[in-house]
Amino acid sequence: MMKLTQIVFFLIFTCGVLHAQVDKDSCKDHSLITRYPGAVIEYCDLQVYKEYRIATGAETGYKKIDDWTNTAGKSTRIYYSIKGDRTVSEVYKNYLDALAKGGFTLMANRLHSDRNVSSEVGGATWLSTFYSANPFPTNVGIRINQGSGTSGGTFYIAGNLNSPNGKVYVVVSGKQYTDKEVVVLLDVIEEGNAETDLIKVDAEYMTKQLNETGRVALQGIQFDFNAATIKPESEPLLDEIAKVMKANPTFKIYVVGHTDMKGDLKYNMDLSAQRAAAVVKYLVDKHKIDPLRLSAQGVGPLSPVATNETEEGRTKNRRVELVLISK
Questions:
Q1: CA distance 92 to 222
Q2: What's the pLDDT score for residue 118?
Q3: DSSP of 252-318
Q4: CA 5 to chain centre
Q5: Which residue in 5, 108, 186, 296 has the most C-beta neighbors within 10 A?
Q6: How sure is the predictor about 198, in pLDDT bands with cuts at 50, 70 and 90?
Q7: Of 227, 234, 221, 172, nearest to 35 (Cα)?
């Protein structure tokens, strides 16, 4: 089996000389696989631990793919733009050859060389469904699901390799965005378990998260099964929320309840709202927080942070979030 670093050799020497590149600040290639020569990084994202779903079969219905492989671990996402005369077919062939020569086992791959709305693996419609399961921000300029008047074909490749540190997955898709530009979205998932118990969720941590990101997710608030009754072991965390509100007297926040996907939508929407209201009532009754500074909302299963197909994922989705309205 070839080393992963040899993927760099094959991509560079199959395609020719590298062009000058101006990448987005703080972005760089993954150490295991290089870019297609001439490509420029327009977006990147690194997650220490992320759940990821790899599709391996065609759509079987509207936005429905039945065949998936679920994995999780360190996740690197890189979005490239390749401008010039290169075609989506050339880019596909080079990535395919590089992964094969690097010892990867292919899980799914297909090229659609012409403009399409195919629901087969790698088709334009299929890619939209795939990325709805592995979403990216809508405001960072990723155009893998977009087209222009001269847009063309698409492709998808997924493969895995057993490395000394565990299994590695590479998922790469591409689109002929215009006749002079190919865009590529690369995901590398290095399988492994997340380190846990590293964050102390207290008033200081919550305040920092609210100031920096505008939200903080709390999975330590527990309720009775199918009820909005707060369990006693949740009270220390609720008391920390009260400390935040008292130390920041101008803070106004939404208290947002979330559920998993099990059960009826309306039931879960109602339950999440009732649980959020229970948190607000606790803060008002016990700690005398001004009720005008707290707004209870329930969104049920509509904003998951993990898959609902595993118990671990459903546990993560059952949470309460604090969202900053104003400070």
A1: 48
A2: 96
A3: EEEEEEE--S-S-HHHHHHHHHHHHHHHHHHHHHHH---GGGEEEEE-TTSS-SS-SSSHHHHHHHS
A4: 26
A5: 186
A6: low
A7: 172
DSSP conformation class of 151: -
The pLDDT score that the predictor gives to residue 18 is 43
pLDDT of residue 173: 98
Q: Judge whether residue 29 has pLDDT over 60.
A: yes
Helical packing angle, 203-213 and 235-247, nearest 10°: 60
On whether the CB atoms of residues 104 and 158 are closer than 8 A, the answer is: no
Q: 90-95: long-range contacts (C-beta < 8 A, 24 or more apart)?
A: 90/15, 91/36, 91/155, 91/174, 91/182, 91/184, 92/155, 92/157, 92/174, 94/10, 94/11, 94/14, 94/15, 94/36, 95/11, 95/36, 95/157, 95/172, 95/174, 95/184
Give tens-digit pLDDT for 200-229.
789 999 999 999 999 999 988 999 988 999
Nearest alpha carbon to residue 157 among 74, 94, 76: 94
Tallying the residues shown for the chain, one arrives at 327
Side chain identity, residue 59: E
pLDDT tier at 164, thresholds 50, 70, 90: confident
Q: What is the Cα–Cα distance from 175 to 145, expressed in whole angstroms?
A: 8
Contact 84, 18 (CB under 8 A): no
Q: How confident is the model at residue 194 (pLDDT cuts 50, 70, 90)?
A: low
